[in-house]
Design goal:
With 335 residues, the protein is α+β, with helices and mostly antiparallel strands. Among the domains are: 154 residues, Tetrahydropterin Synthase, Chain A (2-Layer Sandwich), CATH 3.30.479.30; 49 residues, no CATH class. 62% of the residues lie in helices and 17% in strands. The strands form two sheets. The protein has a four-stranded antiparallel beta sheet with strand order 2-1-3-6, with helices on one face. A three-stranded antiparallel beta sheet has the order 4-5-7. The chain is rod-shaped, with a radius of gyration of 82 Å.
């Protein structure tokens, strides 16, 4: 504390932590705190959209010139009790509140309630700091501001709940939108997958159709080639059969011609032989001819163990033999 002792209007003692003797009946004592003090601020303001908000802030200050402060603010104490005769700190706090409230109220009047609640702390703190730093009323009282903090800007609970509801709705809408987007993306991906599968099936079907078509063409080509081969084979077989038939016919004709020629030659040979034989018979005696005839007859007769020759049979036989040679048949019994 800074202590100041006045006696008969003159300064008898002063200083920080000074101790001295004084006569209470004639002494005027003042005691000024020199430590850092915090002054809480709480005031209401109106925004640009005519909404009431409450500003909560804290100002840190200290007395830098206690002798000057003691002359401008009543820091006098009772010599008997040591208590302040008034409330100097409250007076100083009221002064700080008034000096800080005016620029804050003016600044909030240019902002909407949503802007003040969302981002009004820094602008309000800045205007309060500028106002207190350049205010002559503080410097004339030996007061220096070291720090300013704006703790919060609040509005009525109902309005806050309403705004929170709106914010919650927006957040919920954003969440729903994100959910819908995820679902849409999932559906789109599923659709893309389904389209890919469908395209794959279509491509597979098209290739299968091409395969079936190619197989059909191959089968037709094979059938055509087989039919051509069969036709060629049939024509070849027919030609072979025709050639074989012609060959067989030629062979048969040649064989027939040969056989006919052989037959002719044999006939001619036999005829020549018969002719020669018959010519030879003309020169042979009749008895010889009979013997030859009998010999030829014996060659053609079956084996006979016993032969009975009757006159009639012998006559007929001899008649036949002689008749063949143009001779008269003698009667049986003739010599």
């Amino acid at each position: 504390m800074y202590v100041r002792h006045l006696r008969k209007g003159e300064v008898a003692h002063e200083g920080v932590g000074t101790s001295f003797w004084f006569w209470p009946a004639s002494a005027a004592l003042s005691q000024v705190p020199l430590d850092d003090r915090e002054q809480p601020l709480l005031f209401r303001a109106r925004t640009a959209d005519f909404q009431e908000v409450t500003v909560q802030a804290t100002v840190n200050y200290r007395v830098t010139d206690p002798a000057l402060a003691a002359t401008r603010i009543d820091f006098g104490i009772n010599p008997n009790t040591g208590a302040w005769n008034s409330v100097p700190l409250e007076t100083l706090g009221g002064l700080l509140t008034e000096l800080a409230q005016q620029p804050a109220v003016e600044r909030l009047a240019t902002m909407t309630m949503r802007e003040a609640l969302a981002g009004g702390l820094a602008p309000v703190r800045e205007v309060i700091a500028q106002a207190l730093a350049g205010d002559n009323r503080l410097s004339e009282r030996g007061i220096s501001v070291s720090d300013i903090r704006v703790v919060g800007i609040r509005t009525d609970p109902e309005v806050e709940r309403a705004m929170q509801t709106e914010t919650r709705e927006q957040v919920q809408q954003e969440a729903d939108r994100a959910t819908y987007e995820r679902r849409a993306i999932a559906v789109e991906r599923e659709r893309a997958i389904a389209e890919n599968e469908l395209q794959s099936k279509i491509e597979l079907a098209r290739r299968e159709e091409e395969l079936v078509t190619q197989q059909g063409q191959n089968d037709r080509q094979r059938a055509t080639e087989q039919a051509a081969a069969d036709a060629i084979a049939s024509e070849s077989q027919a030609a072979q059969r025709r050639l074989s038939a012609a060959t067989e016919a030629d062979a048969a004709r040649l064989l027939g011609d040969a056989e006919a020629e052989v037959t002719r030659l044999l006939g001619e040979a036999e005829g020549a032989a018969e002719t020669a034989r018959y010519s030879a018979y003309h020169e042979v005696d009749t008895s010889v001819l009979l013997a030859l005839a009998a010999q030829e007859l014996a060659k053609h007769l079956p084996r006979v163990d016993h032969v009975t020759i009757t006159p009639d049979l012998l006559t007929s036989l001899v008649g036949g033999l002689t008749g063949a040679f143009g001779q008269p048949v003698p009667a049986v019994g003739e010599s």
